[in-house]
Amino acid sequence: MQFFNQLGHFMIMGARAHAKWEIEVSLRIMGDRKRLAILGLLLIPIILGGIAFADEIAGALPMVLGGKKAYSPAFYTNTIFFASIGVGLGAGLITGCIGAGGGFIIAPALMSAGVKGILAVGTDLFHIFAKAIMGSVLHRKLGNISVSLAGTFLIGSIGGATLGGYINRTLYELNPVLSDAFITSVYVLMLGFLGTYALLDFLKSRKPAKATFSPESKQVKSKKGEESMTGLSQKLQAMNIPPMLHFDQGVVPGGRKISAIFLVISGAIVGLAAAIMGVGGGFLTFPIFVYGLGVSSATTVGTDIFQIIFTAGYAGLGQYAIYGFIFYTLAIGMLLGSLIGIQIGSLVTKVVSGTTIRGFYAMAVLAGFINRVFALPGKLAKMDVIAMSDKTAKFLEQIGVYLFFVVILIFAVWVIATFLKNIKVLKGEGVHA
């Protein structure tokens, strides 16, 4: 039980670290006219409808570039574009207000709207990569990166992303329904665990006799003040399997060391999850590094930011874009929506309590979990794994879709209403939207 509590705690910390990165990136983009101009240029081919000829273009392309059996580059419609802005806005509001990555709702939202799972994953990865590049995230956070750890980790993450992309594409070629069922199952497991932990944490925070959740308050410290290690990390660092990597010299006297093999394995796990789910992987990097490898929080955050750029970029472009599994219209729309949502959500945190935010986080994660749980039976029935009529399967899926979007809509309305209601207060603090 203690293991799962620690794992959930570190996964929440990872989600928060990823959200902090997204907020910083969004602020950099919105605060720079040149970056906004670049974003405007990206919209020109979509607005002009130049991608409407995608079917003809795809017919002349080899499969590796999006032709033949793979999806062709996505076409443009007003409905698709504005719906994608709404999805991005919801994810941005969650990221900015809750302070935990809202990307976990993107794939379920797109799949609920009828987008194939593999296309939702590829599009989300491309959206993450585009935001990272536009935000020029290679800045001051790099001071916390151990070059040896980051480089070795990326060897594994690139390998894991390659495997993850190959698995998704292979399953899709075998059976698109099997591909959707696989991606849905992964989300059910991940969101189920995170949502349950977040809900329990929220309920504990409401009890006045107990301290509320705080990553800082739960961070274990040694007598000298530095972060101590778990039993697992101590055992792994005690294994002298060359080559050994040294790190955290500025955190503990003499630093720490660990075998490069464990870094490669860790990177492979994160890369695999990122490529399969279409996420940055931060919620896994944190528990693996801090709980498993014994890396300090500061170095972990820096390495996580570093790996997101390359892992998401490689997975998005190398494993999905060149095969045609990216819906560009959706990606740009989500980028626009998330930039706006993050600005509003970040400001709302100044006028609401931490307990309320914690409750909304649990609610949003569980909404994604319920959405995928109700969608799974229909997919399993189509593959004859379980017996269920099409009518019943569709009914269950619709319940999950309605519950999911109602919860996200309620959250979005509450955040925007709170923002508008407290504009004067926010202005009084010298904050500008």
**Spatial order of the strands forming the largest sheet:** 1-2
Helix fraction by DSSP (H/I, runs of at least 4): over 70%
First CA to last CA: what distance? 43 Å
The total number of structural domains is 1
Please report which band the strand proportion falls in: under 5%, 5-15%, 15-25%, 25-35%, 35-45% or over 45%: under 5%
Element order: H for helix, E for strand: HHHHHHHHHHEEHHHHHHH
Q: What composes the largest sheet? A: 2 strands, antiparallel
Q: Provide the low-confidence segments as ranges.
A: 65-74, 209-225
Integer average pLDDT: 77
The rounded Rg comes to: 22 Å
The number of helical elements comes to: 17
Please tally the β strands and state the result: 2
In short:
With 433 residues, the protein is mostly helical.
Describe what you observe in this structure.
With 433 residues, the chain is an all-alpha fold. It has one domain. It is built from 17 helices and two strands. It has helices at 2-30, 33-47, 54-59, 78-98, 106-112, 117-134, 147-174, 176-205, 215-218, 231-238, 260-277, 282-293, 297-320, 328-348, 354-382, 390-421, 423-428, and strands at 244-247, 256-259. Strands 1-2 form a two-stranded antiparallel sheet. α1 (2-30) packs across α14. The longest helix is centred in the last third of the chain and has 32 residues, at 390-421. It is globular. 48% of the residues are buried.
